[in-house]
Amino acid sequence: MTYNPDLLNKAKRHPEKQKNPDRPAGRKPEWIRVKAPQGETYQETKEIVRRHKLTTVCEEAGCPNIGECWQQKHATFMIMGEVCTRACAFCNVATGKPEALDKLEPLRVGVAVMQMGLKHVVITSVDRDDLEDSGADHFVKTIQAIRMKAPGTTIEILPGDFRGKTADWDHVINARPDVFNHNLETVPRLYPTIRPGARYFRSLSLLQRVKEVDPHQFTKSGLMVGLGETKEEVAQVMDDMRAAGIDFITIGQYLQPTPKHAPVDRWVTPDEFAELEKTARRKGFLMVSASPLTRSSHHAGEDFERLKAAREAQLTKRAAE
Length: 321
What we know:
This protein is of the alpha/beta class. The chain has helices at 5-13, 40-51, 57-60, 66-71, 105-116, 136-149, 166-173, 191-194, 200-213, 231-243, 270-282, 300-320, and strands at 76-79, 83-84, 94-95, 120-125, 154-158, 179-181, 218-225, 248-253, 287-290. It has a single domain, classed as TIM Barrel (Alpha-Beta Barrel). Helix 6 runs parallel beside helix 7 (166-173).
């Protein structure tokens, strides 16, 4: 990887919080506000989720895009329960001792995907450090169930780091999801306070491993901004992602779920997000999504189609050179 330790030391000496003095972090600006969930299709999606006793990260993490996504019958299923074994400072999912895995859950997810008629589905999970394989086999069984019940649906997964066990990584990679997404979330300097249970280079290594095992598989990762990171640090993370072969980067504004979570350091403006997108494109990502309300699975289906088109265009260009 290409992370520069001199940059990390510089950031420690000069954090450069970059607070916006004209807009207190406690008040949401106009561009971050969304409409309340409503509509007939939203209720239909909610009913399917409830009927199959499934959990969605849309609800558990308090995603601001739930109204838009559920109205379009898009949902991100969260498997392996509602309780996480880690306590990240940005995440609203409950932390504690999880219950035993529900062996019928993969099948219920597959049936729900079929009934919703999804073209593309995103599967994420809580971290299950209490399990020997961190839930790797449960992910594989869920992928298999979706392929059985909805063979035309493309699958994007958003798992944890499986505690760095290569055998578990390979087990999931070899199930061949269409997109392997794993978020770095923030810059290395902020990991001890924002993502204490994870390791920056472990997450990078996981995404690099996907490309080593299956070069054709798309890889994706996301960042939150507004936590106190600097522009230099974000640019360095982009370089590290590209060194690991990551195809798609998402960048969105961090929103504080509750007063107990990490505070918002500042509100990043739409113009700044546009600059971040330009920077990421210059660095060679196939796809970039950067906006205040960008989230990993927001517009995932449409983005997958664009991702495939971008790869085809890239291959065509290389063949012509």
